[in-house]
Amino acid sequence: MALSGGMDSTALLLQMLTRGSHVTCISYDYGQKHIVELRRASANIDYLLSMGHTVEHIVVDLSSAMALFYSALTDSEVGVPEGHYEEEQMKQTVVPNRNAIFSSILYGYALSISTKEDIDVSVTLGVHSGDHAIYPDCRPEFYDALMHAFERGNWGSQRVAVELPYIDGDKESILLDAMNSCDSLGLDFDTIFRNTNTSYNPDQFGRSSGRTGADVERILAFHAIGRKDPVEYVDDWDTVLERALDTERRYEATL
């Protein structure tokens, strides 16, 4: 599975452990401004290991290759946009072909493991419906086409399955799933999600701004399930929550 260090892939990791899967997580350093997400991912792996859960974690360095791509997430001269996560300016946070590249590496690794160990392998991704409006490489039709190409372009693809368990869900349902997984696994929900990052422009201390589209979506999801987000924000929770609610109200007024 791909483990970004964000809340969606972290929840997915918990779900896979709940299923009893043997999990290998692949994280990517692609020169992202929010590189703190990789440190958070490692912190959660350490926490899981300390609680008796076995997880393999691999970090793949793609920073030199993806420095060729234009995106607000990787280009130091382009500011990260703020506002509602479905507003037009959020398209600046798209990294061209990112999920195709990530998925290709995952699929190639799965094929390799399947061949070497003579086993069936699943590739699992945490993409969800909240990303469909802005990120075309998170939509079901993209993965249908991509996996069709992978199957046609490789020997042994019949032994590799692809799972997108959150594809029709949103961040609220993802958090509820994570709560259930934490209960099943004997894990502390707040510890897990304190060790995640969703913000695209955290400060030098790794604190979330609460202002990017990804921040707003996360804040509203925690509010929807009646919990305070345990991750550290630049401002206090009441302030970031009210700002996120106001952002949502203003966006809805434009529809």
Count of helical stretches: 9
Class of secondary structure makeup: mainly alpha
Helix proportion: 40-55%
Q: Would you count the extended β strands for me? A: 4
Strands of the widest sheet, in order across it, are 1-2
Gross geometry: globular
Arithmetic mean pLDDT = 95
Count of discrete structural domains: 1
Which topology does CATH recognise?
Rossmann fold
- Unreliable stretches (pLDDT < 50, length at least 5) are none
Biggest β-sheet description: 2 strands, parallel
- Given this structure, which CATH class is correct? Alpha Beta
> Which radius of gyration do the C-alpha atoms yield?
18 Å
Which short descriptors sum up this protein?
mainly alpha; Rossmann fold; single chain; two-stranded parallel ribbon; 9% strand; 255 residues; 4 strands
Model description:
This protein is mostly helical and 255 residues long. The protein has a single domain, classed as 3-Layer(aba) Sandwich (Rossmann fold). It has helices at 7-18, 36-50, 63-66, 98-117, 140-152, 171-185, 189-194, 213-224, 237-253, and strands spanning 23-29, 55-61, 121-124, 160-163. Strands 1-2 form a two-stranded parallel sheet. Helix 5 links the parallel strand 3 and strand 4. It is globular. The termini are far apart. The mean pLDDT is 95.
